[in-house]
Every structure is written in structure tokens, then in C-alpha cells.
Design brief:
The chain is α+β, with helices and mostly antiparallel strands. The chain contains 13 helices and eleven strands. A hairpin with a 2-residue loop joins strand 1 and strand 2.
């Protein structure tokens, strides 16, 4: 028997046996005898949605567009409104310096992108690149002569939440939240299907316009250098492993005409544009590499959060309809939690990370400043220590495990995440996905986390 369900504009044919494959003793007659005859279609919709990942985060239980926010920007706004924080206006950069200072975003995190891939694209060009700054919880965009400062906060419950701050001086500046206009681009395949962050690499024309007929790339810690930073300025040395940065092509040219060698190993941008108009003269390669890793790891955490919320909702509905115990979890429910957890674990542990062909060195103090943030264990080790010889981190486990977004995950998400991590780090999981972690790596990460992460399950303390 088959069921036809509507998703978007498409009809989906679903086999009843497949739908109920993971639900034991499914009593359809019992459902039909319940007071509401809507039980069957509701159940089918839930099961089909779970199988096809067709959830809409704008609807309950996420309610992305209308839910109350609680993130670094909403909390800063409260301080501004109560006069606990004064935002100083600068004639050159408007509120940029004040925003960075209030949010503790380092100036040396600056990355410069000259492709026209922002809503302020008319002001962006190779002569006036857009500056992006970030820390663990927020991304800040600045355009020379722009009307607003752009902000994307990593909201612990909602994922990326987008704001703008008007660049006209006022006593109490107001951050304006944006939804639909931002999620059109920042909630799809580039962001793992959730409101999120992304670093995009394009083939830029001489004026900064993205030549999208040639395609584009999402830059992550998995990306080979040859696909990274198209449309970005990049400062730093990296040997013979050339990237797409600092270069452009004519609209009539082929992608192969992009001169990767000429744009590589650039240590100064003085010959490209007037760097004096920016807070830093760098677009440090190390900062860009950290940001690439961070954006998609943030997205993985958001995806796990959403998936846990949706799974719990579906589980409750099914349990009530089937008159099962309130806390009953089917095999399919457990697998959904495990799947979201594995995606986070794989991002945390840098699975499929691109192996550096040459050592990488930045041009600013970002490398040292980033490592100094800690936390540190009793041996002075931190997950923020950078390797930059063959990989990004010395101890390949992401520092975002300390982030507010990670800490806000429900127990149904962190439970399997911590268990999977523990099995990998203790050698109980020998899956090839984690073959890049040597026994020494696993032991070091395990020891660092035991000393620096307060909410680990008790079994993590075991030395066995």
C-alpha cells in the first residue's frame, strides 16, 4: 500500500511498510478509533517529514521568525537601552569599533572579501572590500561608506540570527533583526539546511561581481586550498599550495584563467587597495581558516539542536497516538538523535580535514591572540593551539565545544555527542572516519576535556 503526500509542490509516494518499518506493532485500527480522525495523516506527515528532512524552521516548534531571542546582540541591546553601555560613534567607521569592543571581537580576526556577495554589494569592490570580524559567538560585517553594520549572532536556540545597525549617530543605537531577507541565502544547502553562516568562494570578475556561471564553493576545513577564498583578499604564506584569493577573471574568461600562483603567498595588500580605510591592514589566512571551520561547525550544532527538538516533538505525538509510555523511544527516534550527534562529532573532530601541503603562517597577531583565549589544562594545553604545519589545530577537537551554542543543546543531543566522543577518544570506536586521530591525539584531547569541560558525564572520569 502506498500513500501520496504533498511536500512543497511535489507529491511523494511512500510505502506503508517503509513508513512503519521502525515502529513495532503499529495499531492502525486503534488510531482510527481515537476521537480525532486526523491521527493517521498527522502520523504519516511526521514520519515522512522525518524521512525526507522537509521540516520548516519557521513553523512550530522552532518558530524562527517569531521566537524570543537570547544572544550576544539581544543582551547588548538591553545594556544599551539601560545606559549600561555607551556606543561611541567614529567618523571613519561609524559604530564598528564600538560593536567590536562591546562584543570582544578581535580586530585581527578581520577578513576582507571583495566579491559582491552581500546585500550592500553596490559599495563592495576590489577597491572597497567588505570587512568581516568574528569571535566564537558573532560575526560582524563592515562596508566602507555603508549605511549599516551587519551582524550574525550564533543564537543558542535559533542558530544564526541576523541584525543590522544603522550607521547614523544616535544616543541609543538599535540593532534591527532581519529574518526572511537573510534566510533566503543563509538557510539552505550552504548552511546545512538551517539558519546559519557560510564562507563562500567564487570566481570574481575585475569589478568583484561573482561569475556564478563557473560555479562556486563553500569553504570549510575540508576544502582544498585550490577551492578557497575566491573573491577574498588573503595575507599569509603557504608554500606551493595555491588558493583562489587576491585574483579575478574577466567575464569572458574560463575558470582556468584565474591566476592562483600570482595571488598566493601575498603578505601585504598595499598594492591592491587603500588599507588605511580599515581597522587592520591584514586579511590573515589563519583567521580565515578558523572562520571556515567555525561557520560550518556552528551550523552542525544548530542542526543537531533543531533535529533534537523536532525528534522530541514527533516522539511525543506518536507516543500519545499509540498510547505508549511517555518516555518511550523507538529505534528510529534513537537513530535520529544519533545522526544529529554524529554530524556534530565529525565537525568537532575535524573529520575529512584537508591536509596542508606546506606550513601556513599568518601576517597578524591573530594566531597568538586566538591561542591565548584558552581554557588551559594543568599542562598548559588548550584546544585553541594551532598546528598550521599539516592541519589547523594541534589537538584536533574544536574549541566550539565550549561555546554557548553547544552548552545550550538539549540533553537528548549532548548525551549521544558525549558518548560518541568518549568512545572515539578512548579507542572503543575504531571507525575509519576517525583514523586521522592518532592514539596520542586522542589521549591529549581526552585529558584536556576532562580538565576544562565541566559538564562531562561521570563515565568520562574513568581511566579505563
Amino acid at each position: 500500500m502506498f500513500f501520496w503526500l504533498i511536500f512543497g509542490r511535489s507529491l511523494v509516494k511512500l510505502d506503508k511498510q517503509v513508513l512503519f518499518k521502525n515502529t513495532t506493532h503499529f495499531p492502525t485500527s486503534k488510531i482510527m478509533n481515537r476521537k480525532s480522525l486526523l491521527s493517521v495523516p498527522v502520523l504519516l506527515s511526521i514520519l515522512a517529514s522525518a524521512a525526507l528532512a522537509q521540516y520548516d524552521f519557521e513553523d512550530p516548534p522552532i518558530n524562527y521568525n517569531t521566537a524570543e531571542v537570547d544572544n550576544v546582540i539581544s543582551r547588548l541591546q538591553e545594556k544599551i537601552d539601560s545606559d549600561d553601555v555607551k556606543m561611541r560613534y567614529d567618523a571613519k567607521t561609524g559604530y564598528l569599533k564600538a560593536v567590536l569592543e562591546a562584543l570582544e571581537v578581535p580586530v585581527n580576526s578581520q577578513g576582507l572579501v571583495f566579491s559582491k556577495t552581500s546585500f550592500q554589494l553596490r559599495r563592495i569592490s576590489p577597491n572597497t572590500p567588505r570587512a568581516v570580524y568574528f569571535n566564537d559567538d558573532v560575526y560582524v560585517g563592515f562596508v566602507v561608506g555603508g549605511t549599516v553594520v551587519e551582524i550574525a549572532a550564533a543564537d543558542p536556540k535559533l542558530g544564526a540570527v541576523f541584525y543590522s545597525l544603522d550607521q547614523n549617530p544616535t544616543r541609543r543605537p538599535q540593532f534591527k533583526r532581519h529574518t526572511y531577507e537573510c534566510t533566503q541565502c543563509h538557510a539552505g544547502s550552504m548552511t546545512q539546511g538551517v539558519p546559519g553562516h557560510t564562507v563562500r568562494s567564487v570566481y570574481p570578475g575585475a569589478d568583484g561581481r561573482a561569475q556564478l556561471q563557473h560555479g562556486s564553493f563553500i569553504s570549510t576545513h575540508e576544502s582544498p586550498f585550490k577551492q578557497r577564498w575566491g573573491g577574498w583578499y588573503v595575507t599569509g604564506t603557504h608554500g606551493d599550495d595555491h588558493h583562489m584569493g587576491n585574483s579575478s577573471i574577466r567575464s569572458t574568461e574560463t575558470p582556468e584563467s584565474l591566476d592562483r600562483e600570482r595571488g598566493s603567498n601575498v603578505v601585504s595588500l598595499e598594492d591592491y587597495f587603500a588599507t588605511s580605510r580599515y581597522l587592520s591592514k591584514h586579511s590573515d589566512i589563519v583567521s580565515l581558516m578558523v572562520m571556515e571551520h567555525q561557520t560550518q561547525t556552528h551550523n552542525a550544532i544548530t542542526k543537531a539542536n533543531y533535529q533534537a527538538i523536532w525528534t522530541a516533538r514527533d516522539c511525543d505525538v506518536l507516543n500519545e497516538a499509540l498510547e505508549r509510555p511517555e518516555n518511550f523511544q523507538s529505534e528510529s527516534t534513537i537513530r535520529r538523535y544519533e545522526s544529529g550527534a554524529k554530524n556534530v562529532v565529525d565537525h568537532l573532530l575535524m573529520v575529512d580535514e584537508y591536509r596542508l601541503k606546506s606550513p601556513v603562517t599568518g601576517t597578524s597577531a591573530y594566531t597568538e591572540e586566538f591561542a591565548a583565549l584558552g581554557p588551559f589544562d594543568s599542562q598548559g594545553r588548550t584546544l585553541r593551539q594551532l598546528d598550521l604545519q599539516t592541519r589547523l589545530f594541534k589537538y584536533p577537537c574544536s574549541y566550539l565545544i565550549y561555546s554557548e551554542a553547544f552548552d545550550a543543546l538539549p540533553d537528548s543531543a549532548t548525551g549521544p555527542i558525549y558518548r560518541q566522543l568518549w568512545e572515539i577518544l578512548t579507542g572503543k570506536n575504531t571507525d575509519e572516519d576517525y583514523a586521522h586521530l592518532s592514539p596520542k591525539d586522542r589521549q591529549a584531547i581526552l585529558e584536556i576535556l576532562r580538565e576544562t569541560k565541566d559538564d562531562l558525564p561521570k563515565y568520562w572520569a574513568s581511566k579505563k
